Queue: 2 jobs
Job 1
Amino acid sequence: MLAKTPTVATGDFERETGWEFKPEGACKGDVCIALAEKPGDRVSIVEIATAMGLPVVVDDKHGFIAVGPEALGNRALTTAQAPELDLPDLNGNVFKLSSLRGQKVVVYAWAPY
Amino acid sequence: MWQALRDELHPQGFELVTVGLDTLGAAGCRTFMEAAQPTHPALLDQYHVLARSLGVINIPSAVWIDESGTIVRPAEAAPSPRQRPRDSAPPQLPPGTPERVVGMMTEAAKISSDSEAYHEALRDWINNGKDSRFALTPEQVIARSRPRDDNVALGHAHFELASALELEGHHADAITHFRRAHELVPDSWTFRRQAWSLEPGPEGPLARFWQGPAADNPEAWPYEGDWLNDIKEVGAENYNDPFQP
């Protein structure tokens, strides 16, 4: 995830990283990372990412904070539960992958280069 | 190709979602998307969310997801449905084609693909669902997803930052972080091709495909590798992993 402020709304952090805060910790699918305490309405990005073991790159020149994904189990996927994807179409309308539940789906990555 | 396959299988409860991975977003993808006239969701991914969240490292690749939202095959090479027998002979190019483009087309013709096996497997899954031998268990899906250690995870943060810097017009600073991402995630072709494609190429339709040093000013190229050299080093036949049932 990317941010230009040191703190963000907790819900935004959850949506951007795919990790949800529950009483047992930060959870994705059936995997949880234990945390000392459940975050409040806002989180300090560097603090929470560090507590979760997520990599952080701070760009002081332009004011960006970038948080990388987890490397749990040394694999790209921590769980086989599909992540939510909310990506725009050509008209800027955001499409949610979860809206296709009940169908078999192939997510196909291509590029124009 | 994929569009026809989608329309054929859609009545059986199948949907295709295409995602264009490009920092330039609609500006980079629009022409191709409008030409394809998709009847399925066709989306844009400017920050390569599919790399971070699904482990996509090359294109074209695809992930299969069942009716309950469970991944049954992680990101893997997804060749197009074959329209005609493969012709691996070097392409016939018009006289005057730049030497670099001849080299690239020659290498591209050598890229292997398991189109028949892949599409037989896809149809088998559409017909048989979880009973298909190509539908993997959650444990297999996780184990077959891309390797990711702490360096790779850090490389994803650098790539996302580079994308944001590029979009804000800080091209030189973006290069610094693209380079770091390339060092940390050396198996990602998309991270490299994306960055290379943002460097100025020759005028015209080849601009984004040039992806390497300019013939008249090779010292200005800001990256360690380029498409032609990297694919020769790896071997075009190894560009895609073979389909693994």
Note: The mean pLDDT of chain A is 97.
Job 2
Amino acid sequence: MINIVTAVLIATGILVLAFGVIGILRLPDFYTRMHAAGKTDSLGAVLVAVGFALYNAQSLAFLDLLVSVKILFIAVFIFVASPTATHAIMQTAIALGVEPWRKKEEGK
Amino acid sequence: MAKAATFVIMAVVWVILSGMLDPFHLTLGVICCGLVAHFSHGLLFWGGDAKSWLRGFVRWILYIPSLFWEIILANIHVICVVVHPRMLEIIDPQVIRFRTVLKRPISKVTLAQSITLTPGTITVDIRDDEFTVHALDRTVAEGCPGAMEERIRKALEADR
């Protein structure tokens, strides 16, 4: 039972990360690519980490539970750090004057 | 009081991270936690009395599930855009600026993180109370900052 749950969690996480990669390849400019990268990597990595933590905790031995808590710590830190990193990269890009891609509008 | 609470939190984290329960490692942990708690308890409990701090902390914890749900929605949105066959027609990137009513630095940071993790928007910059946000299309740009600002104000600034 718990094997199925962990398999679903890890597979979903990897799928989300894969879509993030597709987004980085398909979107037109730096800023829109950061949208795909910044969002999918937090959810994808957290799903994979929670899957690992569950899989590791199923023996219910004390040390294994401690390792699971450590993995959950990693998930929390990714959760906090990923938007911050996205934010920092975007700010640097604006400061360096990277032009955002804009849709061609009528009359321009 | 703040020192004791910091010490307890750090001791729990120490035991989780080390995983060793023999006297040698526990003594090391107690010494380290005591030193750090003595010198930098102000980092964890910034000002205010313990009661209002605890209330704010509980509200912040309750804010997490709604944030997680928003993140799942944001990912579904981004994935839909990314795999859309006519992707270049449905995106319309915008850079928008708005002013926030939030006062505390911690609530501004929380709002910035929340905006970054909601569908189609990323916070670029915060200057004083002006946010700069990059949005993936026009509709999400108009829906910003939305209800989230009010929720954060309730969670983190209600008793101010």
Note: Chain A is about 80% helix and 0% strand.
